[in-house]
Design brief:
alpha/beta, Gyrase A, domain 2, Rossmann fold, Isoleucyl-tRNA Synthetase, Domain 1, four-stranded antiparallel sheet, four-stranded parallel sheet, 20 helices, about 10% strand, RNA-binding
RNA sequence: GUCUUAGUAGCUCAAUUGGAUAGAGCGUUAGCCUCCGGAGCUAAAGGUUGCAGGUUCAAAUCCUGUCUGAGACACCA
């Protein structure tokens, strides 16, 4: 609501009222007004005056300068300044949305941003835990691009950590030849080795040793490693393809290794490395810390490197390759301390200190019991099985679902799971209840898709023959829908600034609710009034364009029918 | 133990970051297809925002204390 805001700023300054930021927000009392300003209270405190008097002054002045009739009414109620928009102004704004690109959303300053998400590790099967980093990351990437940012996405595969040593150890122990490695073998080996290492300290040391030797270039281990990489990446790609998640870069942890010597030089030139208990560390503690931040471990006492080192080397790599303004990390919130350490070291290094580093933490996905999600059989379900289950449950739901094509079923299963995830605040954990999700009633992906498709049917049958709305608004459902469309601008900037797809997802749902209400109350096909019909076709066309765009930003495709 | 984070309707979550009467979905109850897709729509019931203080015109939101859950806390990722 930029125009209204500018007008209010003008109004306030001509009254001699100064306030640090003027914010006109959507009213939470739609019975009273459309937009609300509560600055009169702040002014009252500053000036030691009655807020009602100040509010009334603002109202009088606003009426005086509102030569374009932006508002049909502006009143002061108990200190709140309440604006009701005029039909003309509403339609003016909607027409701007129709004819300008990207619905006339105000764009932020363009920056070059690397976004790191997905969290896949080589040789570990993708499971339900990888769902959020992939979906939320992909959605944030798309939102950044919509907001005109220069974005590079990188999957940053974990391929050089201890897990690879574990898998190689397991393959050798089971006498699997390099040529016989396939995805089913890998899927079987990792969980086995992971639990073995937890119970057997000796095996763990062996695995650590293999990891170290691999990092040092051991030929035999490198052969295993290359094959594992090939098999595993193929599988990871097919999983991400299914989710419509894609990356510009498929860099791996190991690709950052060649930057470690340079990184060491940089750290040494600033005397940042110290030895502690045989390991090379960087002290990242700070006097203002409420609790001790442990030192960042640069190199283990056995000379092997940890993921913190490769993360840091990756920042250097990105700096030199792309010179980004920002790097965003979408990862499990439990890694918060790790990123705090990495970021602090990065800020100490002269070459890297100007890069903004943002950690976007994700809450865990829990089952109905409040604990991390498991299948009925008790193990962590693999991603593909999860979608298969979802499709099966969805088919049982309705007889008609049996006739839906398999590709549309995939789209619907994607919409169910993605919308269920993205409507939640990414920082909070949430309960994943497949039974509930596949029932598909209420606030779900298919609800949005259904709304889109039924309205789209009208648009197919009625050609859009004007490109500008008239001055009219015809009834309450009509006005509610138009007002909701006007919120898009502020929703997008809030979503962008906070990197919260959930804000946009909830807006999309609310928009669909109003669209459905409109649809039930107004039967366009039966209309006699041609002008009304033309306006409404255009309005519905705009609404569906918005829905389609937001669905894409939520990584949800539209099925041909459902 | 220290730090972080959460606690809102029976259940799962909102609340544009201090604004007016705390909103949705599920579930429950009662309605709505001669009509563009009923996976829909219209209503109703359901709340001392964990508890106790405090700050101010105004608190779910900020501060203090307290209870409960979750998580993190140097050679795993």
């Amino acid at each position: 609501m930029k125009i209204l805001q500018d007008m209010l700023v003008k109004c306030l300054s001509s009254l001699g009222y100064f306030i640090d930021f003027v914010n006109v927000v959507k009213s939470n009392r739609p019975d009273l007004c459309d937009y609300q300003f509560d600055g009169a209270f702040k002014l009252a405190k500053m000036l030691h005056e009655n807020p009602v008097v100040i509010g009334n002054n603002i109202v009088a002045k606003f009426k005086e300068i509102d030569d374009k009739n932006l508002v049909s009414d502006v009143v002061c109620v108990g200190g709140f300044v309440n604006f009701t928009l005029s039909d003309g102004f509403i339609n003016y704004l909607l027409n701007e949305m129709i004819c300008k690109p990207k619905f006339n959303v105000v764009m932020p300053k363009k920056e070059r941003i690397v976004i790191d998400y997905g969290g896949a590790n080589v040789a570990k099967p993708l499971h339900v835990g990888h769902l959020r980093p992939a979906i939320v990351g992909e959605s944030i990437k798309r939102i950044l691009r919509f907001m005109n940012q220069d974005v590079i996405s990188d999957v940053h595969l974990g391929d050089y950590g201890l897990q690879i040593g574990q898998v190689i150890y397991g393959l050798k122990k089971e006498s699997v030849l390099v040529d016989d490695i396939d995805i089913s073998v890998l899927d079987m080996i990792y969980p086995k080795m992971s639990s073995l290492c937890k119970s057997d300290e000796y095996v763990k040391l062996q695995c650590a040793d293999i990891t170290k030797k691999l990092q040092d270039g051991d030929e035999e281990y490198q052969r295993y490693f290359k094959k594992i990489l090939e098999v595993s990446i193929k599988d990871i790609k097919s999983n991400y393809d299914y989710l419509s998640v894609d990356f510009d870069l498929w860099y791996k942890e190991s690709d950052a290794y060649k930057y470690i010597p340079m990184l060491t030089v940089l750290l040494n030139s600033q005397n940042l490395l110290t030895i502690s208990d045989g390991a090379l560390v960087v002290d990242v503690s700070n006097d203002n810390d409420k609790t001790d931040i442990p030192p960042f471990i640069y190199q283990k006492s056995n000379k092997a490197y940890l993921y913190g080192t490769t993360d840091l080397a990756t920042i250097l790599q990105r700096k030199r390759d792309f010179n980004p303004d920002k790097i965003l990390y979408v990862a499990d919130a439990r890694q918060s301390l790790h990123f705090t350490q990495v970021f602090r070291v990065s800020k100490m290094i002269d070459e890297l200190k100007n890069i903004d580093l943002e950690f976007l933490g994700l809450g865990t996905i829990n089952g109905s019991d409040g604990k991390p999600y498991k299948t009925r059989s008790g193990n962590t379900p693999k991603l593909k099985e999860l979608f298969k289950d979802c499709k099966e449950l969805f088919k049982l739901n309705r007889e008609e679902n049996l006739s839906i094509s398999d590709s549309d079923l995939d789209i619907l299963a994607n919409s169910i799971i993605k919308f269920a995830d993205l409507q939640n605040n990414r920082e909070k954990e949430y309960v994943f209840d497949m039974q509930k999700f596949s029932l598909v009633v209420g606030k779900t992906g298919p609800y949005i898709l259904y709304t889109y498709l039924r309205v789209n049917k009208i648009l197919i049958n009625n050609e859009r023959c004007i490109d500008k709305l008239s001055e009219n608004i015809y009834n309450n459902q009509d006005r509610d829908l138009r007002m909701k469309l006007l919120e898009l601008d502020s929703v997008m900037s809030y979503t962008f600034l906070n990197r919260l797809p959930s804000i946009m997802a909830n807006y999309l749902y609310e928009l669909c609710v109003l669209l459905n209400t409109f649809y039930e109350k107004n039967h366009i096909n039966n209309l006699e009034d041609e002008k009304m019909k033309e306006d409404w076709i255009l309005l519905l066309s705009l609404t569906n364009d918005v829905i389609k765009t937001l669905l894409d930003l939520l990584v949800i495709k539209i099925p041909s029918k459902m």
